Amino acid sequence: MRARMALRYSGISVELREVVLREMPAELLACSPKGTVPVLVLPDGQVIEESRDIMAWALAQQDPDHWLPRDTEQQRATQVLLDANDDQFKQDLDHYKYAVRYPEHPPAYYRARGERFLGELEARLTVQDWLTGHVMGLADAALFPFVRQFSHVDRDWFDNAPYPHLQAWLERLVTSVLFTGCMQKYPQWHAGDALTRFP
Asked: What is the pTM of this model?
């Protein structure tokens, strides 16, 4: 989702091939043997295999609202947030979301581990509207899909958790035209299908 948001924000149109992971097409594996999504294949044949790297590439092409941090402090804060999200929080989210696969602990244990990061985000949003300042930036778009997933595991719990600023931040993003414009459903791609453009 964050890769699609960055592409849409940057005004970059791509050929979209929607795949089902359990039916990974040979064409995708030929480009990226890892067998994960998203994958962006550039016109020169370069393959970008991570959503975070796709975001960076898209913003390097066009960044109309200055999502990329412009000073050293913002750069550092963005790097710290993305690293914490992509390393530990994503793991905590997976354990919480799929707790049945990790029966060593109850779901509340995994939720508590994820809450350490939620608390950090809440503290930031208590003093500013967005994660790295007073305007939306790369960190907001990059972390938002994962916080959204976390909130959906137990929506009643999240709505009543002590994170009012994080809840408001999430609501702003969930209802944004940028996000809703990325939520269109696409049919599964098969070789020979007509071209689909995104956005």
From this structure: 0.94
